[in-house]
Every structure is written in C-alpha cells, then in structure tokens.
Design brief:
There is one protein chain. The protein is an alpha+beta fold. It folds into 3 domains: about 15-30 and about 175-255 and about 460-485, 3-Layer(aba) Sandwich (D-Maltodextrin-Binding Protein, domain 2); about 55-170, Alpha-Beta Complex (Dipeptide-binding Protein, domain 1), CATH 3.90.76.10; about 260-455, Dipeptide-binding Protein, domain 3 (Roll), CATH 3.10.105. About 25% of the residues lie in helices and about 25% in strands. The protein has helices at about 1-5, 45-50, 100-110, 150, 215-225, 240-245, 275-280, 285-295, 325-330, 350, 355-365, 375-380, 415-425, 430-445, and strands at about 25, 55-60, 65, 70-75, 80-85, 125-135, 135-140, 180-185, 190-195, 210-215, 230-235, 250-255, 260-265, 300, 340-345, 365-375, 390-395, 450-455, 460-465, 465-470, 485. The chain has a 7-stranded mixed beta sheet. Strands 14-18-13-17-15-16 form a 6-stranded mixed beta sheet. The protein has a 4-stranded antiparallel beta sheet with strand order 4-5-7-6, with helices on one face. Strand 8 and strand 9 form a beta hairpin. Helix 7 packs antiparallel against helix 9 and helix 13 (about 415-425) packs antiparallel against helix 14. It is globular, with a radius of gyration of 23 Å.
Length: about 475
Amino acid sequence: MGALTGLAGGVPSTWAQDRQRAVTLSLSLEVDSLDPTTSASASIGELVHYNVFEGLTKIEESGNTSPLLAASWERSPDGRRYTFALREGVQFHDGSPFDAAAVKFSFERAKAPGSANKAKKVLFDNIASISTPDAHTVVLTLHNPDANVLFRLGENTAVILHPRSAAQAATQPVGTGPYRFERWQKGWGVTLVKSAGFRQAAQVQIPQVTFRFINDPQAQAAAVLSGEVDMLFNIAVQTVQQFQSNSQYLVLVGSSSGKGMLAINNKRKPLDDVRVRRAITHAIDREAFITRVLGGRAKAIGSHFSPTEAGYVHLAGLYPYDPQRSRALLKAAGVKLPLVLGLTLPPTPYARNDRAFMVDALAQIGVQVRIEEVTWPEWLAGTFKGQFDLTVINHVEPLDYHIYADPQYYFGYDSPAFRALVARHAASHTARERQLLFADLQRHLADDAVNAWIYAAQITTVARKGIKGWWMNYPIFAHDIAALRWE
C-alpha cells in the first residue's frame, strides 16, 4: 500500500493529457511481457490484444468469431483445410505491409520446437502445413479437424507479429492494431496511443489508453474515485457497493470463461495420492467460498470447464462439502496428521481477500497451511514452475483443458489415459463423438481430483458514466479500446 501511495504524487506528467478523451484502466496484475505468444500471463492479452496486436479472427463479446486480419475464409468439406483471404491495405505500426508472409512467420514461430506459446499443442501442432499462394492468401491444413479452430485463431496466442521485430515484442511490440506502444513504466503502467496509420483510424475515438497496475482493492477504488482511473475490471466485490449507489458510475456484471481453483501439485507427496486430493476437495464449501469471497457472483464447478463453454457438464456435486469424508480419505491414504502444506497466494483479490477461509477449511480436516504471499513475477517464476504445494488461482483461458495433457505443466498431472482421451477428441470426425468425448474429458479430470475446482466467476466491471462500448461478458480477457467512445 505504501508503494501505491508513493505514486500518487508521481503520476507521469502526460497522464492527464486530453483527459476528456483519453481512457485509463486498472489491471490487478502487472504484465511480465507484452508478447502474448511467449508468456503465460493472461494480463498481457488484456493490454495488447485487439489494441496493439490482431489475429486472423476476432472473438466477439458473444463468443462468436468474426473476420479481423482475414477478410473471409473457406473451409474444406472434411474440415481439415482453411483458406483465408487476408485483408488488404493493412500496415504494421512501422509502415511495412501486413501480408501472408507475416502470418506464416508468426505461426511457424509458434510451432517451432521449444516454443513457449500456450496454444502450441492444441492449435499450432495440429497445423500440418502453411502455404501462401500469394501475398493475400494463407492456406492452413490441419492434421485433424477442429471445430474450434476459428475461435483459437482469435485468441491472443495467435496474433500476428512483425517478422522483423518479433524478437523485441516482449518490450517493444509492433502490431497492426489501432494503438501503438508508447511506453512501459515498470511498477506503474503501460501507455498506448492511437496509430495514425491504422486502416480505420477515423473510427477510433479514444486517442490514448493507459493501463494502470494496481492490485490492492482499496487503492483501485480510490483511483477511480479520484478520477485517475475510468474503469476497473474484475473488481473485488467488497468495493463494489460504493459504486452501485454512485450516479457517476456503472457497475456491469457479466460472465467469463474463468475457472477458479485451489491448484494442487500432483508431483509432491502425499498430494500424488488421489485420495488426498479428494480429501482436500471435500473440505471446501464452494457455496460458502462464493458467498464470502466473491459476494455470490459465481457458479460452483467441479472440473476445469466453465458453464459458458458448449458441452459443459456440471460436476460440482461429485465432491460435496464433507469434512468427515475428507478425514476418512486421509486416514485411508495413511496420512499422518497434522499434514503441513504450503499455500501460495498471488496478489489478486480472489486469493487474498479472505485468506482465512482456506486456512480454516483445511484446518478442520487436519491440514495446516503455511501461507506465502508472492508477487505476480514471483508466482510466474516459482509457483508456475512447479515450486508449490497449493495455490489459489483463476485460469481464464477458454477451452484450455489441453494443459492437463502436459506432465510438465505446473501442477504436474501425468495421466496417459487423459492424454489418450485428448488425442481421441482431437481426431474425432463427428460432432456427436466430439460431444461425448468432451464430457469424458471433464469427468476424467474430476474423478482424478487433479485440482480442487471451486467457481466460475462472474466479471464485475466499474466504468465511469459517459464511456460507451465496454464489454459486459468476457469469453476471453481482452479490452477492445477502439470500440470505446465518450458521450
């Protein structure tokens, strides 16, 4: 809190420039990079997706896909070949033309051995070939049909980078979007300014956007009330009420694809025993968590799938709140009590607002937790590398079940049976078969209690009145600033 207070008198002098037209957003987590194709943090997409970088398709607020850098496309009858006609007259921010070569470069970079792209396995490894018959045509041939390929191409992992500057995209991004990168003041925020060379520049009404990094809920609220911030995204529910009764603000409540959970390190003993993981899951009263921590703005879930995803199966009832059952499972697993485990908490309101809830829930079954509060860079460098016992986290990417097919992913789940299910789902050729296998994927993860899934949160947004164009629902975490306008 002291560091945030110290910034109050040190706001960059250009922050207030053209205040009636510029927009400032508050994000809870500071990004570790500005390249969404090489880093795991979802906050990067909130900042650069649709603003600096664009993909072939765009995911709308409804979850539908529409043309973006691809003006149109054709799909072969077998669902394995997509021919994209690229939009002409598009330029990168340095004035060089966007063309098929840039698409091929970006996708081959994502496919390359050692690529850190989160969508490598589910999207790019499924691309058998990329051909460019001319400068404005790209043909993707898939190993297996994928009913979600157009959606995946609209996610931030599939944005098109400038071939000559991709290596610097983490700190000096160059894209085709309506805004170009201006500056990144570490610990404070990132500023983007309108790109004069954007193909539809006349339609872009917001000349500048600043993303402020403020993770303390009270400091976030204070920044809005002082006029420093125009919009809070995924605001902590404890601070919502003061805005609901204030005529200067709108409070929007919508859905998202996020999955909130107590993530478990499946590689560490005794957490490698499914009985112990089931015991931990039975110890959590989901509805009480949703009420106390999220103000009731969420739905209970029982697997790594959100109710917003087509084919969702409600599995929360598989592990009802039952501390007695938890203790019986721990006894059957031969666990000596008290069991001491570390609980790592990132600097997000959902993780820290009521840390006593998780401590008390586990204490009643004989599990003592040692709380470790970490910064977001520390979470990415340690917890995300597998250095943890338990951690509270919200996975916001839609349809990201493929992470459980990677034994090296941070919670270390290693199941040949699940990987076989994923492969069968990817190779299925009928909608009915895919639907059945999608349900099997959900049940398999739930049966193995890989993590203790708790909630699919609603997204609560506070926006200053007079700004139009905000999303209410978030199928992906992105902020389309070019769609905003002041009234």
